[in-house]
Design brief:
alpha+beta, six-stranded mixed beta sheet, Nucleotidyltransferase, domain 5, globular, 498 residues, 16 helices
């Protein structure tokens, strides 16, 4: 039996999963890392800690599977997108904490850009002008960190998203690590031209980013390097797949055809619609992005709707409010009541993403009465996940003109059956979950396996997809319309906050 590994570096944790040729998980290990919050709206990670966790989870998964690194045909990398790392190529040390995709410190800077610059960036990249993306984070590092500026001046600075940081370390680091990224991650920086699939000099000039610090852009499925034999694998294993986490989930859900879509529920919520080789520019607040590019084949594009806070709203109930002990407790608590007692919760902790794109929006809880309990708030948090998803999917239908009859879902929250039933009821469509719900890691494994011939083509991958569970809508059109109307009123409160 052949095996492939997948390094899944997410917003809250890092894990390594090992799959066999049938897509079955044979070993995995996962560890959380710190969330660093220097001030309101700022979110950082310690990139050195992430690299330490990476080495630990690789060793842990290999041990659990009773395998050696040399038993793996290849490994793939998937990562939290937009999170930006700057490091010194001569020492291997990060030059600053990684600035996380949720961070909004660059909002004022982006607002200061003139209309011509803003229009140029949006057209060339398919993205909205928001602090979500990597380019303004890189600009902040250049302008605000003397250490970074000095490293740029000396030629030692390297910038990248988390995939580049991990690839550089896994392939040798200061002993010859390669500095690459893939098209999916590059398409999230505000710096890559969607048509040329390369860094665009006009965009680099606008955001004042020196091209020399950036990685070379590669496809999502090719052999980039071998792992350092002295590293956690103890062998030279081909690193052969890189995909941003949401694109990896598209591959894991085998959404290879135009018109196929998936929604991933994680720290945030992300829906993608495959638009084939066509670049479709949204008129309804969505993003245009690269879906994947396998080797020399043409790039596939996607429309994407991003929600900043979904799973992290459950973490907030646990960590800040203390009304649950574990995230999994939410389902039982929310199930103890039959409705939210009129409570609506909009968790706009760092603004609203698609389709509103309002950095100044802030979270609200509306409709409170003396009768409201922690159970009602827990249920409202689950409803918020579902309503935010409907906002995005309605925009996607408007852009594509294709009615949605079902939605493929994956990610941690899909284990919450109540939430998935709510999703079906709020949208009025079927929700289907695959047998392997951790499709992000699986997608990176697929990309790596395709590059080394472990799987012959995407048709072989399609045959592996199996449904685990389906939720059918039980709501009436009247109930859906009424609940959604109240949700929109709550959204208005967040938008009026500023």
């Amino acid at each position: 039996m052949a095996f492939v590994g997948s390094l899944d570096q997410g917003t809250s944790s890092t894990r390594f999963m090992i799959f066999d040729q049938n897509g079955k998980v044979v070993g995995q290990h996962q560890l959380e890392h710190r969330q660093i919050l220097p001030q309101a709206g700022w979110v950082e990670h310690d990139a050195a800690e992430i690299w330490e966790r990476t080495q630990e989870v690789i060793s842990g998964a290999l041990k659990q599977a009773n395998l050696l690194g040399s038993d793996l045909r290849a490994i793939g990398i998937t990562n939290q997108r937009e999170t930006t790392v700057a490091w010194d190529a001569t020492t291997g040390a990060p030059l600053h904490n990684a600035i996380v995709w949720q961070d909004v410190r660059t909002a004022d800077y982006l607002e200061s850009l003139n209309e011509n610059s803003r229009a140029t960036i949006s057209f060339k990249t398919g993205l909205t002008i928001a602090p979500y993306f990597s380019g303004s984070k890189m600009n902040w590092l250049v302008k605000n960190s003397p250490v970074v500026a000095a490293a740029i001046a000396s030629g030692a600075a390297r910038f990248g998203t988390v995939d580049s940081w991990l690839l550089w370390n896994l392939s040798g680091g200061v002993q010859g690590g390669v500095h690459f990224t893939d098209v999916t991650n590059a398409s999230r920086t505000l710096l890559m031209n969607l048509e040329t699939l390369d860094w665009d000099q006009e965009l680099l000039d606008i955001l004042e980013i020196p091209r020399a610090v950036l990685p070379e852009i590669k496809s999502s499925s090719e052999v980039y390097a071998q792992t350092n034999p002295h590293g956690p694998f103890g062998a030279a294993v081909p690193i052969a797949g890189i995909l941003g986490d949401q694109q990896a989930a598209m591959v894991g859900q085998v959404c290879f055809d135009r018109g196929e879509s998936k929604t991933t529920y994680g720290t945030g919520n992300f829906a993608l619609l495959n638009t084939g080789t066509e670049i479709v520019r949204s008129k309804n607040g969505l993003l245009t992005t690269v879906c994947y590019k396998f080797g020399d084949q043409p790039a596939r594009y996607a429309l994407e709707g991003s929600v900043a806070v979904t799973g992290s709203a459950i973490q907030w109930l646990r960590d800040q409010l203390g009304i649950i002990t574990h995230a999994a407790d939410t389902e039982a608590l929310a199930s103890s009541v039959t409705d939210t007692a009129g409570v609506y919760f909009v968790p706009a902790f760092s603004g609203l993403f698609a389709p509103y794109w309002r950095n100044d929006a802030r979270g609200v809880i509306v409709g409170l009465t003396r009768a409201a309990t922690k159970a009602h708030l827990a249920r409202a948090a689950l409803e918020a996940i579902c309503y935010q998803t409907r906002d995005v999917m309605d925009a996607m239908v408007a852009d594509s003109g294709v009615p949605m009859t079902e939605m493929r879902v994956d990610g941690g929250i899909t284990a919450n059956s109540l939430c998935m039933q709510m999703q079906a009821d709020i949208m009025g469509i079927d929700i289907t979950r695959p047998l392997i719900t951790e499709t992000t890691a699986l997608g990176a494994a697929y990309a790596a396996g395709l590059a080394v011939g472990l799987w012959s083509d995407i048709d072989e991958l399609r045959k592996q997809w199996q449904q685990s569970r389906r939720w059918n809508s039980t709501s009436t059109p009247e109930n859906r319309a009424s609940g959604y109307s109240q949700w929109k009123k709550a959204i208005e409160r967040t938008l009026n906050w500023a």
